[in-house]
Write a structure and sequence with these properties.
The complex is a heterotrimer of chains A (294), B (288) and C (331). With 294 residues, chain A is an alpha/beta fold. Chain A has helices spanning 17-28, 36-39, 86-93, 123-129, 145-155, 160-173, 177-180, 193-205, 223-236, 249-255, 273-278, 283-289, and strands spanning 48-57, 60-70, 75-79, 103-111, 114-115, 130-133, 211-215, 241-245, 258-263, 266-272. Chain B has eleven helices and no strands. The N and C termini of chain B lie far apart (51 Å). Chain C is an all-alpha fold. Chain C is 74% helix and 1% strand. Chain C is built from twelve helices and two strands. Chain C has a two-stranded antiparallel ribbon with strand order 1-2. In chain C, strand 1 (72-73) and strand 2 form a beta hairpin. The two termini of chain C are 41 Å apart. Classes of the chains: A alpha/beta (294), B mainly alpha (288), C mainly alpha (331).
Chain lengths: 294, 288, 331
Amino acid sequence: MSPHDPETQMTDPPTDPATAAGETGQSTAQPPGRDGAATTAAATGRRITLDSLSAFYGDSAAVRAVSLEFPPNEVTAIIGPSGCGKSTMVRCINRMHEEIPRARAEGKVLLDDLDVYEDGVDVVAVRRAVGMVFQKPNPFPTMSIFDNVASGPRLSGARGGDLRDRVERTLRGAGLWEEVKDRMDQPGLGLSGGQQQRLCIARTLAVEPKVILMDEPCSALDPVATLKIEELIAELKQRYTIVVVTHNMQQAGRVADTTAFMLDGELVEHGATDRIFTNPGDSRTEDYVSGKFG
Amino acid sequence: MSALAPVSHRRRRVDRAARGLLAAATGLAVLPLVFVVFYLLQKGVGAWSVGFFTTDPSGKFFGDAGGVRSAIFGTLEMVTLATVIAVPAGIGVALYLVEYGKAGRFAAAVRYFIDVMTGVPSIVFGLFVYIVLVIANTGGASFAGWKGSLALALLMLPIVTRAAEVVLALVPDSLREAALALGAPRWRVMLRIVLPTARPGLVTGALLAIARAAGETAPLLFTAFYIKRATGDLNRPMNSLPAQIFTDVGQAQDRLQARAWGAALTLVLMILILTTLARVVSRRSRLA
Amino acid sequence: MQAGTLTQRAGRSFGERPARARVPDVVMRWGLTALAAAVLALLAYFFARLIGESQTALSRFGALGFVFDNDWDVSSSHYGALPLVVGTLVTSAIALVIGVPVAVATALYITELCPRRARGPLTILVELLAAVPSVVYGLWGFFVLIPKLRPVQQWLADTFSFLPFVGGHVAGPSYFIAGLILAIMIVPIVSAITREVMATVPSDHKEAALALGATRWEMIRTAILPYSRAGISGAAMLGLGRAVGETIAVTIVIGNAPRIGQQVFDQGYSLAAVIANEFGEAASIPLHRSALIAAGLVLFVLTLIVNGFARYFVVRGQQGPKAAPAPGMAG
């Protein structure tokens, strides 16, 4: 974790842009372009199944008996008014919910066919398989851009050239490489909000998860940065199962294959995104998507 | 488990070891308290008797050593006087900072030096008073109880001020404005609205300062000195529990050492009562 | 203040508040300002007198000569404070080496690891360590710790004799025992400030680390410790300030030998201890008295420096690490 690890050396900003390009070319042996997808094309997402999942804060239930399936390599959007339990539900999938004092969950969350709440399941392993991107970009403030992306792989012992390759690959995968390759040793906090969020996505990708949870990933961003993240989501679904919580229905319409609508902790309905928005089966969904409340 | 890549054994071991180490260190931190309390009870209770509380130290090396009456009275008297000086002064300075000084340059200087005062060792406060009042025989006597009180008050002042400033700043401006809008003059607003609203916090700060002062020895050694008999006269040298303990520790005499333990237990109990009171008051204010 | 002048002006224009109604306001304002000014003036006066009273000794031996002369000999009226300065620094250093890791570990355990229900009681227990008066720690140290730890000290001295300043015959009262007691005494303050600093670590960062699949310890290392480093340094410095100025407990257990001990298990002396101990005899000898006051001055200046550093670190620590100067914060 030391900032003086040898691998950070190569990320010193070169003074001459020409040498910079040369060095990066040599050190990575990557075909040009944004092709992180190609190098890990074999990877596929995992199926997540919620089986009557309930979540509580103390005695009050925030999520009530939700059963829902997130198919692999698809984007599922969770929509609903604020306070409906959508974030809580998603935080149950990688067991972040239990980090809040007095919070607990009941029911099953299946990763393929493994219940992540089963006794003996290691919560750390769950979180490595199910990555998460938060509402507010939260790069580690004391770490450089490189160290932020490297923080996950380093936990499992990645060092040296492997680590450098992995950081570059994931930064390319997050569409950030070209923007930051010359200032890898600068603090992650120096980036713009949208770049910070893509940095956080890269940090999540670097752990090589199967599923990515995104909790309102664009709510703190401007429209241009939002668009970039949405394009990225469309690209990432080739390799991951993606769950996006959003209060922005247009966004759900743009990125999601499937959309689920939640209200007061319950799942009202879910289905193909087109259908949910054009022909909802429940009057409450219709009220919400047509803007009558929320 | 097949769906998950297992976490390496090394990482788990490191995690478990680190957690264990942190827990052990916490135990280690609390251990001295357990030991101190154990020995205080074991050795202190035995020294207690009616005579212990009702007689003055005899000053005899052999035979009846006497009790600690003068020390208890001295501590109570000097700490009371110190409180009477330091609490109003400390709250006054805090009022100035919150109500008038605010972010001004003079207020910043006051704040800074109050902060400096909290870091000054208690023995240095004792030296201050010694130089200014004891050497000069101010008041007709060299060592005197009220000089000890002054040294303690100097020690308490920054504690009271810092605690008071925090709670006074917490009084919402809307309350002040509401009262001012009713046409109340500012001084009445401060006395009738601001101070009463902040009272529990002020009491807590004062009690903590008193508890701190009650246990101090160093500033008393060369201001109030150590004397056996209780006089009640604050213009005379005065005994105190900490000074009594310090004097007795140095004596190679079982009786005197036993008296030190008994006095220590008495002192710790007094301080414990004060800190518990402070805690109760501050908890109640948080509920309100 | 603005509101105050406003009321006054309104009063005057309506002719309802005569000038004397404003007197209490003016008295209050200037009274409190004068009080604050008086505290500063008093402090300045004390400081001046402290310097003045130490002149006899300082002019005799020279300021540097006083601080760096290794001979404190009352019988021949020679006062060099180096043994005392060394004693103060050595005992405080021992206190830091033992106390700070324990205090930081305690803060981490209480804020991040222990069951929620144990959090309150544990906090109170650690804070109660600060409620025990210095003289009681001295008493306990003298009658319990020194005899009980004597074999431990001897074992440490024998086993680690290959280290510098370790070994030799163990005296009982020693730098080590004084440092150990000081460590106990600074744990509450260091731990309390460390806990405050750790409470300012945004939960964002902790969650980010956990969501990456960090274990609890790895989360502490990646998210908490780097963020609170400056604050912990500040807490340690404040602890150091306490240790340097602590008097009575040290006086009782350090052994009061006015020479520089060769080992950490040797007896020694400290600035504060010498003042507390020798005051009785010095009161009537101007040079001795002045030397003790000069020792107090050295101690005072030492704590000012240490606390100055502490303030700097604590303020920086509570602001958290700063973002780089904003290239592209706008984007």
